[in-house]
Every structure is written in C-alpha cells, then in structure tokens.
Amino acid sequence: MTIDGSGQVPAGRTPLWRHLYVQVLVAIVAGVIIGHFWPQTGEALRPLGDGFIKLVKMIIAPVIFLTLVTGIAGMSELKSVGRVAVKAFAYFLFFSTLALIIGLIVANTVQPGAGMNINPKSLDAGAVSGYVEKAKHGGGIVEFIMSAIPTTLVSALAGESLLQVLFVSILFGIAMLMVGEPAAPVRDMFERVGLVVFKLVGILMRAAPVGAFGAMAFTIGKYGVGSLANLAGLLATFYITSLLFVVVVLGITAKLAGFSIFKLIRYLRAELLLVLGTSSSESALPSLMEKMERAGCKKSIVGLVVPTGYSFNLDGTNIYMTLAALFIAQACNVHLSLGEQLALLGVAMISSKGAAGVTGAGFVTLAATLSIVPSVPVAGMALILGIDRFMSECRSLTNFIGNAVATVVVARWDNALDRDQLRLALDSGVAPPLAAPPIEQDPD
Predict the structure, then answer these.
(1) How many angstroms separate the CA atoms of 303 and 301, rounded?
(2) Residue 344 three-state SS
(3) Which pLDDT score, from 0 to 100, does residue 228 have?
(4) Which of 142, 267, 274, 336 could form a disulfide with 340, with the two C-beta atoms 3.0–4.6 Å apart?
(5) Average pLDDT over residues 21-25
C-alpha cells in the first residue's frame, strides 16, 4: 500500500508496481546503475535528490507545529505534557548513551583503524575545514540553548531549525491548554488544517522515487562503488554494529513492549527505503508521524516524541560518533586512555543533541566533538570524508528505526497505545485507517 494521505486501506489486491516501497526500491537500483556506468550523468542528477528533500523540508515545520500543538492542547492537563516529556527524555538519554558506549566498545574491540599508521600532518585539513567551521557555530551548551530560541514567533516556522519549531510548538500548545475551552475553536481549526497538510504530504510522497533515484545516482556517480574498498573495514564494522543495535538492543526493547521489531520494520518499509535512497531520515518524518498514529499511538504522544526524537534520540549518529573518533585516533596512532575516551563520550553526548536528520549532520557533529577533544586530530576526518555519504545512510536508517520504537514504547508507558490497532498494523504491514471523529448533531 502506498502512503497517499487518504487514510484508506484499498480494497482488493493492489498491483505491486503501485506500492511506494517497490517504486523507491526500483529507483534506488536504477540510480546505482546510472551512477556506476555513467558517473557524469549520475552527478548531474543531484538536483532531483536535493529538490525532493527541499520539498519535504518545506512541510516539516507545519506538520510538527500542527501535530504538536493539537496534541498538547488535547491533553487533559498541563502535568500530562510534563509526564510524557519526562518519559520521552529518559528514554532518549538512556538509549543515546547506550549507543555511544556500544560504539566505544566495538571500536576498542575491532580496532578498524589499527595498522594504518597515518601521519596527521600528511592529511588534507582543508578538505574538512568547511565542516569544522560549521561545527564552531554550534558552540557550547549555552549557544545550543540560544539557537533554540527564534527571533520571532513566525520566524521559527519559516526557518530551518527543528529545535526552534519544537520550542514554539510546545509553548503554543501549553498556552492553548492553559486557556482551556475558549481555545477549542483554534484547536479545531488547526486539526482541519492538519488534514490538508497531511494530504499535501501524500502528494509530495509520490515524488519519492524520483528523489531517491537522483540522490543515489549522484552518490555512486561522484564517489563510485570502488570508493568503499579502502575503508571497507570501517564501513562493515559500522553497518554490522548498527544492525546488531537494531536487532538486539531495539529488538529486546520492542519485545518487552509487546511487539516485534521485524514487523515494525516491515510496516515502515516504504519510509526506510526512502531514507536509504535520500540518506536523510528527515525525508520520511511526516510519513512516520502519520503511520505511528495509524498504528495505535495517541496523537499527542506521536506529536511530542517523534519531533523531539529527531533532535535528541539519534542512535545511529551516536554509534558513528565514538566509532569514527576512535577509528581516526587508531589510524593516526593516537593512544587514548580510558579517561580520555570517557571524556570523548561525555562531549559526544552533548554535541550529538540537536543534530538534524539531514545528510552530513553526523559529520558536522563529529567535527564539533573532535574540536573540543584535542587528543584526536580533526584533520583525521579527511580519512572518512569519502565514505561518509555511505555511512550517512546507515546513520539515518538506525535513527529512524530508533525513533519509531521510542514512539511505541513511550505510548505504552503512558497507557496511550491501542494495542489492537498496533497488532493489526504490524501483522498486516499496512497502515489501518484512523477512527473517524464523531459528528456533532445539530440539536435543531
């Protein structure tokens, strides 16, 4: 079934070619073929991928704002918002830290960079200077907090900062909740606007195969399949670690919450292929929010957990951070003591928060971390620059699955999960329709 925003499960058997995940999969394969055999053509197709991501980013702010505001305003009382937020952030903190520790353990065990004997002075520091400059703008914790505060109420929705959208949406939703009944017409209006916006999401998703095709053709055309060979060990280590994190760590978490991680992955297959094609988990954010609500998670939970998870629950990025940092240290023969590694973990724990779900954000975050930890040469990032695009795909997929699991778990913790609806969605692999709201009858 394709995600068309209609909310209807089609009757009868849908032709295979009409499924969104099939279309995206074919587009990815076609992009690989074009990029490999006609690399110049593949590079020239980059605007297709970039254009699709821009289309999706265009609607992310209104989707988050409308979902979060109506969700918070629909809660019974203000302490309900705080209760859900505390549970969500407790989950984010635990699993983000766990992902960082796992990356650290794997890097010390496998030692993918050992034996390379790279002289940091021989590396092209200019190749990563742009990322380092971006990282410097992130600053410390004070700058991070200040960056979440927009200039005006409207500028947050017109800008590109996910944190600012969250900040304004949460404040606006709390304000509506405190106003109470007089704010009901505003909430109703936002809910109706939300229906239109999600229909727009369905329209834009029809262009997903085109975006995935362009993005994959550019990646293979520019870097080539052969660019994976030199650093295949690091890539394999990262992919296997991320896979084990999803299957074992998130799998156990899902089992304890009463559902199967494999069924959830099947349910979200179209979105996962879209993330794979575009190397951006942000490209599937609107669809994720819609499908998690259709899977039985309460709208207010989805509206709060998914957007905040995109900034604070980045499991794939966290694994990458410690694994890549230690790979660079090992390749440059820099020995890090246990204390230095723990310091690196602490810095990464802070710098990874607020990283956007867009392509290249993990690399910028790594630059920010290494800039603060002088033991590891920042110039060493040039070693992984060529394969970062391929690592970005794995980061995005792991981040996406992690946020889907978080949404179900937090909803279950808060008794806001329709388990029958979840079972129906995961067993069938198809998004069930939402229950229609009751129609108020005119007393006259």
Answers:
(1) 5
(2) helix
(3) 52
(4) 336
(5) 83
Q: Is the model more confident about 270 or about 145?
A: 270
- Radius of gyration, alpha carbons of the chain: 22
Locate 251 and state its tokens.
């799998």
**DSSP annotation of 357:** S
Pick the more confident residue, 444 or 94. 94
CA dist 271 and 56 (Å) reads 13
Q: pLDDT tens for residues 5-14?
A: 444 444 446 6
pLDDT at 439: 42
d(C-alpha 341, C-alpha 337), whole Å: 6
d(CA 28, CA 215): 8
Best CA proximity match to 409, nearest among 304, 321, 297? 297
Which pLDDT belongs to residue 294? 92
Short-list 10, 343, 426, 4, CA closest to 200: 4
- Structure token digits, residue 401: 């699955």
Helical packing angle, 338-351 and 78-110, nearest 10°:
140
Q: What is the DSSP letter of 283?
A: G
**Model confidence at 41, in pLDDT bands (50, 70, 90)?**
very high
How many angstroms separate the CA atoms of 325 and 344, rounded?
9
Pick the CATH number of 16-428 from 3.40.50.300, 3.30.70.20, 1.10.10.10, 1.10.3860.10: 1.10.3860.10
CA angle 169/172/175 to nearest 5° reads 150
| Distance separating the N- and C-terminal Cα atoms of the chain | 42
pTM above 0.90, yes or no: no
Q: Give DSSP secondary structure letters for 109-170.
A: HH-TTTT----GGGS-GGGGHHHHHHHHHH-SHHHHHHHTS-SSTTHHHHSS-HHHHHHHHH
d(CA 276, CA 253): 24
Reference 324, options 233, 393, 434, 251; nearest CA is 233
